[in-house]
């Protein structure tokens, strides 16, 4: 009988082999670091590389740019954040959209011209363009990082522009939402009472101005029975300041004017619904 055969001795890895392994590990670590830095800092190449929370500052900045672009030629108001779920990033992946509105009021015949002025005043990087048609006047712009600006004339003297993220991965917005204070509630109540209505809710919206400061809207919602007093007769005295010229909009259902330090817009529907907004501009 023969005894067990001894296994051949293991050959220790060569210095060259160990060096190749170390290089491979270092290269993998470097690629991981570069990928992390790229995701954190580089502009996205597709929309879903940024969540709605990461896109939110870009949306806010665009709202401020639009508020400045509207200028002293209009009365404006801004909305808060509207997050909507149920969109599809891919057939297997759902997402959310984030949108904010900027509403500008001007004379009934001047709304298409206002669109042109806004497009001209936006930063060149937005590549804003306006299309005028027999039935529609629209504006389109690119605020960067796949944040779009879309909208146009929605009624005589009314322009609504929506800043939106498109469908993206959901995430917290990463900002503390402004809450109405006591003074905001007093302003809202005074507007609704002056209009012959009752206050149902108050909301506050803010956005940073390009050169510093904040554009801020206090929105009051409520209702009234009957037609109430003419809108222009009751709004101006409420805040104790004269209008800066005649109202830009003055109809039975809509009124908008600029005061010394703020601007006010009211929509009064036939069903008795009231929406009044006081905005402090940039």
Automatic annotation (TrEMBL):
Q: Which positions, given as ranges, span the membrane?
A: 19-39
Arranged from A to Z, the UniProt key words for this protein are:
Membrane, Transmembrane, Transmembrane helix
The identity of this protein, by name, is Uncharacterized protein
Native species of this protein? Phytohabitans maris
